[in-house]
Amino acid sequence: MKILLTASSRHGSTEEVADVIATELRQGGHDLEVVRPQEVSSVEGYDAFVVGSAVYMTSWTEEAVDFTRRFRDALASKPVWAFSVGLSGLPHGKVTDPRRVGPVLLSLDPEEHVTFAGRFDPSRLSLRERTIAKVGGASEGDFRDWDEVRTWARSILAALSAS
Ligand SMILES: Cc1cc2nc3c(=O)[nH]c(=O)nc-3n(C[C@H](O)[C@H](O)[C@H](O)COP(=O)(O)O)c2cc1C
Fold first, then answer.
1. Which ligand 1 atom is at minimum distance from the Cα of 98?
2. What angle do CA 137, 139, 140 make, to 5 degrees?
3. Number of H helices, E strands in the chain
4. What is the pLDDT of residue 6?
């Protein structure tokens, strides 16, 4: 199957999650293309999609939201798996719940949507971002669980081979 994996990241942690998903999907023998959402000009010819975004201020990034808008009709007729990367739900992490990216996900109607824990590394952020995240109660650290990410990617492979 030809699969498009597109993920939007501001500071790299979501991109690295996407890389791990890509490695798993390729090992499953699929023809996988990884393209940033703002660089996708056509979605013709793909059989399935994996779409992800970092969550900022309860939303997917503008680029990810724009991707879902531009290709909503095409995406509606194919299987889509969605993932968010955020910090909510982590120890002391009070930044707003990533599941509230609701409208985007509703428009995508994904087979599944998961939220992976992300990374809060103040040294990579602007003063403004640092302040917002700190006020939001974010804990410093890299909370990404690579086994969880791999397991999810494998579940996509299983679903694709069953279809
Ligand atoms: C300014 C700012 C706002 C954030 N807002 C949210 C949020 O609303 N919900 C959430 O779960 N995580 C939030 N986060 C955490 C990010 O989603 C997390 O750091 C993620 O790993 C960033 O991904 P990236 O490195 O791919 O950009 C926020 C982080 C920053 C710096």
1. 11
2. 135
3. 6, 8
4. 98
Taking the CA atoms of the chain, what radius of gyration do you get in angstroms? Answer: 15
Q: Which of 19, 87, 100 to mutate to test the pocket of ligand 1 (most atoms within 8 A of CB)?
A: 87
Q: List the domains of the chain with CATH numbers.
A: 2-151 (3.40.50.360)
Backbone φ, ψ for residue 85 (5° rounding): -125, 120
pTM: 0.93
Among 78, 76, 98, 77, which residue's Cα sits nearest to residue 88? 98
- pLDDT higher than threshold 80 for residue 5: yes
| Ligand 1 centroid to residue 44 C-alpha, Å | 31
Tell me the one-letter amino acid at 128: R
State the DSSP code for 124.
Answer: G
- Tokens 């999650």 map to which residue? 17
Query: Tokens for 147?
Result: 């086994």
Q: What is the C-alpha to C-alpha distance for residues 39 and 19, in angstroms, rounded to an integer?
A: 17
87 lines ligand 1 (CB under 6 A): yes
How many percent of the chain have pLDDT more than 90? 72
Q: What is the model's pLDDT at position 93?
A: 46
